[in-house]
Write a structure and sequence with these properties.
Length: 208
């Protein structure tokens, strides 16, 4: 019987405002085999966000209970709210052969790397501080204090760049998307993503 290969894992991190959501949307729209790892969060839903699709929105006490139960593969406090990746959900998706994309912060990526070293770790970078500041202002969603906080946090996140397998600078969204697509395809073409492929082929030679 032909066994479906296990899915690959992709961790995408980026300072807030770098354009990560746009790239995630494009990649999941182009490749049907990718499933987004739906995190839990204690922050309130933004307009248009759907419970269970974008996040599982939870009360802080429920979130902390899940932390105690070991429900999360990693969790972190980001910009004052808690975010966590459910362990079983992602494990099941990968077992079913889906590629799983994690959109998490740098603290979460560091924790995941300890338990999932086989995942592909991608860091999306702004082309400059000024460009990031302009993008944060252009979104029109944050007040001045929040913009300054996100800029400061971005500086902190950049110091973790060394732990990533790939760096993609988002100067131009098309070029950045080409980079992300290339990383995805290269990972899928590595023997590690389907270690039994050759033995399955060789079995046909034996049967012939
Ligand atoms: P937002 O509130 O803008 O959706 O996300 C804020 C930050 O939290 C982003 O950097 C996002 O990548 C991160 N984040 C989302 N889900 C998780 C998660 O499950 N774990 C961690 N560590 N960070 C997350």
């Amino acid at each position: 019987m032909t066994q479906r290969p296990k899915g690959s894992l992709f961790v995408l991190c980026a300072p807030s405002g770098t354009g990560k959501s746009t790239l995630v949307r494009r990649l999941t729209a182009e490749f049907a085999n990718i499933r987004f790892s739906v995190s839990w969060t204690t922050r309130a839903p933004r307009p248009g966000e759907v419970h269970g699709r974008d996040y599982v929105f939870a009360a802080k006490e429920d979130f902390l209970r899940k932390v105690e139960q070991g429900f999360f593969a990693e969790w972190a406090e980001v910009h004052g709210n808690c975010y966590g990746t459910p362990l079983e959900f992602t494990r099941e998706l990968a077992q079913q052969g889906f590629d799983v994309l994690f959109d998490i912060d740098v603290q979460g990526a560091r924790q995941l790397k300890a338990s999932l070293p086989e995942a592909c770790y991608v860091f999306l970078l702004p082309p400059s501080r000024a460009a990031l500041e302009a993008r944060l202002r252009g979104r029109g969603t944050d007040d001045e204090a929040t913009i300054q906080k996100r800029l400061r946090n971005a500086g902190g996140e950049l110091t973790a760049a060394d732990m990533f397998d790939h760096w993609i600078v988002n100067d131009d969204i098309e070029t950045a998307y080409d980079g992300l697509r290339a990383v995805y395809l290269a990972k899928k073409l590595s023997p590690a993503s389907d270690p039994d492929l050759v033995s399955r082929l060789l079995a046909q030679w034996k049967e012939a």
